[in-house]
C-alpha cells in the first residue's frame, strides 16, 4: 500500500478511475477507515464519484459497521441516481443487513427496479443471518419464477438458515431443490448439507450425503465430525476421525478439543480422550493451550500417573 500511496499522491492529475483504484485498494487491504478518508479527499478535489466508488465505500462501511457513513453514501447514491445500479444495491443490502437493519434491507430490496442474482443472494443471506427460513424459501420461490439461474451460492446461503430440528423440513425442501437443479455434486453445497443435517440432529442422513460426495475435502470431514459432536456421539466422531486419517487428511486441534467437549461422562472422557491423546502424538499435531488443558482435565479423571505422562508429551 505504501508504494501505491506514493505513486497516487505524486500524480499531477487524478481522475475518477485513479481515485477509485486507491479507495478500492484501501478497502481490499482492510484499511476501511482510510478508504473513507480517501473519499473525503476525492470530494474536496471536486472529482465526481461513480458506481464503482460508491460500491467500494459501502463495502467498507459494512465491515466496520459505520452505518451513518453508509446511510450518507446511500443518500449520495440516490442523489446522483446510482442507487439502482446492481452492485451498488447489493452492497447496500449487505450494509443494512450487517448492521442489523432487517426492515431497511427488505425495503431496499423491494424498491430495486431491477435485481441481478447477486442482489437476490444478498437478500437471501440477510434472511439466513436472521434465521428467517420462511423468508428464504419465499425468495427462492420468487427467484425460481424469474429467468435467472439459481446458483450454488444461493442455496448455500439458504441452507445456513436451517440450523435446528425445527427447520429440518425446510432443509429437506432445499435439498430436493438442489438435486432438481443438478447441483448435488457441488462441494460447497455438499459441505453445507452435511452441516445442516448435523445441526438438525439427523446424522444418518448427514452421513449418507457425505458418502455420496465425489471428493470430500477437510471441511467435509470436519462438518461430519462436528455433527457427531453436536449430537453428543463422541464414539462416531472418533470413528470418523480414524477414517479421515486413513484417507490422508489430518484434523486440527479445534476438532480434538470439540470431541473431548462431547464426552459427557468420566468414562467417555477417559475412553475417547486417550485416543485423542494418541492421535495428536502419532500425527505430530501442534499442541494448543486449549488442547493441553482439555487433555490434562481428561486424564485427571484417570490417575496422577497419566497426568505426568501427558505433561511429558505436551
Automatic annotation (TrEMBL):
Pfam family, one: PPR
PPR repeat feature ranges: 15-49, 217-251
Gene3D superfamilies, alphabetized: Tetratricopeptide repeat domain
Gene Ontology terms for molecular function: RNA binding
InterPro entries: PPR_At4g14850-like_plant (IPR046960), PPR_rpt (IPR002885), TPR-like_helical_dom_sf (IPR011990)
Any single biological process term in GO: RNA modification
Top-level taxon of the source organism: Eukaryota
Tagged with keyword Ion transport: no
Keywords associated with the record: Repeat
Protein name from the UniProt record: Pentatricopeptide repeat-containing protein At3g09040, mitochondrial-like isoform X1
Protein's organism: Nelumbo nucifera (Sacred lotus)
Amino acid at each position: 500500500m505504501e508504494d501505491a500511496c506514493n505513486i497516487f499522491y505524486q500524480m499531477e492529475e487524478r481522475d475518477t478511475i485513479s481515485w477509485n483504484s486507491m479507495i478500492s485498494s484501501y478497502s481490499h487491504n482492510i484499511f476501511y477507515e482510510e478508504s473513507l478518508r480517501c473519499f473525503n479527499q476525492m470530494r474536496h478535489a471536486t472529482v465526481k464519484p461513480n458506481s464503482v466508488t460508491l460500491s467500494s465505500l459501502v463495502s467498507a462501511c459494512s465491515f466496520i459497521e459505520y452505518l451513518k457513513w453508509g446511510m450518507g453514501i446511500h443518500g449520495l447514491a440516490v442523489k446522483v441516481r446510482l442507487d439502482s445500479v446492481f452492485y451498488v444495491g447489493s452492497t447496500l443490502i449487505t450494509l443494512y443487513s450487517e448492521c442489523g437493519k432487517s426492515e431497511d434491507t427488505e425495503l431496499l430490496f423491494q424498491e430495486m427496479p431491477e435485481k441481478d442474482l447477486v442482489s437476490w443472494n444478498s437478500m437471501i443471506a440477510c434472511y439466513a443471518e436472521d434465521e428467517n427460513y420462511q423468508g428464504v424459501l419465499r425468495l427462492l420461490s420468487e427467484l425460481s419464477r424469474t429467468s435467472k439461474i439459481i446458483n450454488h451460492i444461493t442455496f448455500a446461503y439458504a441452507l445456513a438458515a436451517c440450523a435446528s430440528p425445527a427447520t429440518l423440513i425446510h432443509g429437506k425442501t432445499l435439498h430436493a431443490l438442489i438435486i432438481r437443479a443438478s447441483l448435488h455434486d457441488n462441494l460447497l453445497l455438499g459441505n453445507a448439507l452435511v452441516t445442516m443435517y448435523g445441526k438438525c440432529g439427523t446424522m444418518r442422513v448427514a452421513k449418507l450425503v457425505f458418502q455420496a460426495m465425489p471428493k470430500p475435502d477437510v471441511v467435509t470431514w470436519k462438518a461430519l465430525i462436528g455433527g457427531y459432536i453436536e449430537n453428543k456421539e463422541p464414539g462416531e466422531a472418533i470413528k470418523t476421525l480414524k477414517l479421515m486419517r486413513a484417507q490422508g487428511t489430518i484434523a486440527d486441534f479445534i476438532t480434538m478439543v470439540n470431541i473431548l467437549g462431547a464426552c459427557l461422562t468420566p468414562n467417555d472422557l477417559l475412553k475417547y480422550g486417550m485416543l485423542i491423546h494418541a492421535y495428536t502424538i502419532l500425527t505430530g499435531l501442534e499442541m494448543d493451550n486449549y488442547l493441553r488443558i482439555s487433555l490434562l482435565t481428561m486424564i485427571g479423571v484417570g490417575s496422577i500417573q497419566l497426568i505426568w505422562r501427558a505433561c511429558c508429551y505436551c
